[in-house]
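User: I've been trying to design a sequence by hand for this structure and keep getting stuck. Would you show me what you'd pick, starting by listing the structure so we're on the same page?

Assistant: Good idea, let's start from the same input. This is the structure you sent:
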């Protein structure tokens, strides 16, 4: 009876169970061939891999492995080959045509990635190589995910002639189409020369590594023959040249591992695309944590410089600040922080360099960063301590008017939340440019030490009271100047006078600055729906 019930319930008697097959089934020939071809496409030349590693450089596949989450990379178009037949190129069997493309995850987030393979004909770019990069960029744009390029290439493949140059054009076009829509990150991990440099220049952030990264339009030998200048690779286009002088590079790393760590950290501050907001991590840092350094600023001589980073560290969650362009145009500091768990971009005048004055490079640096923040829905915190624009013939002839106007345009155009805190000086046109109320700052605060005026009190009294000063006895001149300066500052440069006009919304307790700013960010959280944001490209400035 029990057996009958068991049979009714679908059970099978032990003696009636079929014997399991123990021997594996033979692998079909077509699958064998597929595995062999796939393995061959991914296998590198051991000698060339060793040569790459001996230079202190990873291979393209090693780089992808370091950057992406474990086992998250999915390669596409691994079997494509060049269609060029000239100069025996076809016979060289350039695997993947010198570039690896695919998708993966960084800290669980989907990204598109391409990595040029220097072990395959120097990573030179041919038409198919360019088409692979273009295809991955098209898919990234459709999927609305960031794209990361790992560049290590000898440049255009001369054996393919103009086809290789056309390939660059295809990539540049896509860089512009993706600008302001998805984050684009370029990592220079070897040479990047000629037309190749313009693709990274069109992207949002460029990383370089000391000793192995080089970017230049024309190399040392061409420079020597054209101008007679004798220069080496590092001096001409190394990481320090572009990180400190030209401003082409945003982040300089000590090693490839350090570089990939910093790329991962940057991504934690960025949204996937312009239709989203950056994710808000949980923060254990108290919103009401005091900021005593800002109280010290109130007691400080307004002419005494200090590093803007100290204020930023004090305000930020866990005192962490991811600085962009750290060594370029140091008179303005820009970068990312978390405030109460929310991602915020910071722009701060740095009195420790050129007194914090805005010059050509600082204006460009700050303006492009503000435009990036606006494109990707990131609130802007502006910390003001500025005496004006940098004076001088070099600045005027270099176009400080034109460059300074870029910062005005960027702030006025920005529709993301804008919070401004005046720390000390805010004089003249530079005060207006630094996210003032009349460029539509949302919350404009100051601490009691702020001086907001057309110009500094000392300079103002020299103009307003020039006759009185000249008529004063020589032994009383400095005393009279000091009194006039104090009177002018109290009447015309006081934050209380500015607050009375509404140009400053509130004078705040310095030690409570973090709390006030976080609450402002939260109040403005829904100021703009990202989906209603008209697409704005992040043009290089």
């Amino acid at each position: 009876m029990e057996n009958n019930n068991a049979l009714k319930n679908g059970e099978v008697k032990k003696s009636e169970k079929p014997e399991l097959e123990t021997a594996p089934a033979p692998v079909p020939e077509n699958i064998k061939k597929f595995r062999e071809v796939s393995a061959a496409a991914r296998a590198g030349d051991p000698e060339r891999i060793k040569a790459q590693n001996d230079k202190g450089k990873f291979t393209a596949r090693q780089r992808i492995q370091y950057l992406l989450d474990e086992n998250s990379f999915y390669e596409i178009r691994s079997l494509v080959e060049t269609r060029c037949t000239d100069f025996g190129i076809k016979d060289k069997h350039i695997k993947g045509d010198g570039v690896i493309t695919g998708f993966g995850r960084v800290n669980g987030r989907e990204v598109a990635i391409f990595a040029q393979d220097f072990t395959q004909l120097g990573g030179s770019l041919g038409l198919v190589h360019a088409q692979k990069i273009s295809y991955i960029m098209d898919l990234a744009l459709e999927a609305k995910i960031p794209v990361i390029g790992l560049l290590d290439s000898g440049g255009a493949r001369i054996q393919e002639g103009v086809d290789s140059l056309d390939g660059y054009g295809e990539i540049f076009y896509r860089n512009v189409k993706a600008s302001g829509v998805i984050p684009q990150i370029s990592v220079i991990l070897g040479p990047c020369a000629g037309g190749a440099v313009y693709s990274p220049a069109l992207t949002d952030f460029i990383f370089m590594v000391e000793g192995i990264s080089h970017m230049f339009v024309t190399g040392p030998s061409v420079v020597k023959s054209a101008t007679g200048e004798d220069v080496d690779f590092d001096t001409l286009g190394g990481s320090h040249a572009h990180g400190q002088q030209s401003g082409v590079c945003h982040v300089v790393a000590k090693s490839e591992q350090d570089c990939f760590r910093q790329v991962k950290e940057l991504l934690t501050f960025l949204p996937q695309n312009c239709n989203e907001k950056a994710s808000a991590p949980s923060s254990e840092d108290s919103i009401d944590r005091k900021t005593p350094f800002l109280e010290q600023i109130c007691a400080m001589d307004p002419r005494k410089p200090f590093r803007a980073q100290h204020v930023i560290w004090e305000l930020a969650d866990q005192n962490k600040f991811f600085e962009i362009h750290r060594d370029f145009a140091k008179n303005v500091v820009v970068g990312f922080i978390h405030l109460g768990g929310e991602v915020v971009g910071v722009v701060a005048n740095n009195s420790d360099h050129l007194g914090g004055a805005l010059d050509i490079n600082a204006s460009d640096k700050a303006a492009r960063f503000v435009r990036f923040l606006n494109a990707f829905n990131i609130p802007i915190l502006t910390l003001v301590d500025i005496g004006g624009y940098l004076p001088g013939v070099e600045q005027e002839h270099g176009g400080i008017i034109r460059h300074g106007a870029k910062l005005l345009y960027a702030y006025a155009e920005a529709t993301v939340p804008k919070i401004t805190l005046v720390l000390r000086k805010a004089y003249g046109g530079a005060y207006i440019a630094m996210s003032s109320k009349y460029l539509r700052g949302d919350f404009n605060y100051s601490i009691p030490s702020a001086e907001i005026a057309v110009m500094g009190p000392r300079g103002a009294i020299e103009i307003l009271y020039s006759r009185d000063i000249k008529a004063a006895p020589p032994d009383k001149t400095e005393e009279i100047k000091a009194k006039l300066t104090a009177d002018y500052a109290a009447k015309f440069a006081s934050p209380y006078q500015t607050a009375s006009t509404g140009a400053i919304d509130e004078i705040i307790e310095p030690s409570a600055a973090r709390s006030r700013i976080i609450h402002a960010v939260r109040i403005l959280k829904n100021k703009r729906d990202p989906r209603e944001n008209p697409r704005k490209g992040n043009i290089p400035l």
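That's my pick for every position. To get oriented when you compare it with your attempt: The chain has 22 helices and 17 strands. The radius of gyration is 30 Å.
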